[in-house]
């Protein structure tokens, strides 16, 4: 097949996949996780059920793909913070604050609560570990624990943002988490 044809087909497939994911996210937001069915997704996306099944075998696969897309977007935002400059300590603070705010803003989300599967968690861990590693190398934070241990600490501590009552409470949580990362001597 000609290259243009292949590119056009790939673009179409990508657009259909994105429409399916957008539709699923909207339906979950509007009607709840338990109301999501393959028939309803196909109908609302404007495609046939057979077409939908060519992209996803079941609702769970759609939800995992939507969640992966959401996590990728979050990681892009976090990466932008690290590329904005500043020292490693300030980058770490900005990343933790942004992560906590995303957790706070998505609290109660049926999709977030149900779909935090292992692949998404591994990407978050790897990203946070890299930021922590750089901060430890510059002396901005303690270096007596591994980046893996520190990332685990940060992600668990900042998960409490989902229960916070305000953005001010989230900010205090971030500062408490940062205090735990700083060297004691």
Helix content: over 70%
Please name the CATH topology of the largest domain. Answer: Tetracycline Repressor, domain 2
What is the CATH homology-level superfamily of the largest domain?
Answer: Tetracycline Repressor, domain 2
What is the β-strand count?
Answer: 0
Q: Can you count the helices?
A: 9
> How would you sum up the global shape?
elongated
Main sheet overview: none
Oligomer: single chain
The assigned structural class equals mainly alpha
What's the number of domains?
Answer: 2
Rounded radius of gyration (Å): 20 Å
Task: For the structure shown, list the relevant keywords.
Arc Repressor Mutant, subunit A; 185 residues; mainly alpha; 75% helix; Tetracycline Repressor, domain 2; 0% strand
Describe the protein's architecture and organization.
With 185 residues, this protein is mainly alpha-helical. It has two domains: 1-57, Orthogonal Bundle (Arc Repressor Mutant, subunit A), CATH 1.10.10; 64-185, Tetracycline Repressor, domain 2 (Orthogonal Bundle), CATH 1.10.357. It is 75% helix and 0% strand. The protein has helices at 3-31, 38-45, 49-55, 59-83, 88-105, 110-114, 118-137, 147-158, 167-181. Helix 1 packs across helix 4, helix 2 crosses helix 3 (49-55) and helix 5 (88-105) packs across helix 9. The chain is elongated and about 60 Å long. 25% of the residues are buried. The mean pLDDT is 86.
